[in-house]
Amino acid sequence: MAKQKRDRRLDRRQAEGRVLKANNVKTRIVAVEQRIPHALYGRIIRRTAKFVAHDEREESQVGDLVRIEECRPMSKTKRWRLVDILERQ
Questions:
Q1: SS3 letters for the chain?
Q2: What is the pTM assigned to this prediction?
Q3: Whole-number Å distance between alpha carbons of 56 and 77
Q4: I need a surface site. Which of 39, 54, 62, 84 has the fewest CB within 10 A?
């Protein structure tokens, strides 16, 4: 039976978050908020993770809601790229 080759680009994780910083060239810091229930008490807890994302066209600004996607390592800390802007600030 022949093995089916899967396209790895389809398996990439995506996240939505707000742009916190746009100080560097083609680089954005994106805060992704995750709401999860506490394991014991059930209360909803907000967890925020910051990701360094690559913005090739430099079109996003601070406060924009963006979608980012996992990609190959572009630098020491940059492993995400900006896919599109969902809402402008």
A1: CCCCCCCHHHHCCEEEEEEEECCCCCEEEEEEEEEEECCCCCCEEEEEEEEEEECCCCCCCCCCEEEEEECCCCCCCCCEEEEEEEECC
A2: 0.84
A3: 16
A4: 39
* All structural domains of the chain: 13-87 (2.40.50.140)
Cβ neighbour number for residue 68 with a 10 Å cutoff? 26
List per-residue pLDDT tens for the chain, 89 residues long. Answer: 666 766 776 789 999 999 999 999 999 999 999 999 999 999 999 999 999 999 999 999 999 999 999 999 999 999 999 999 999 98
Q: Name residue 82's amino acid.
A: L
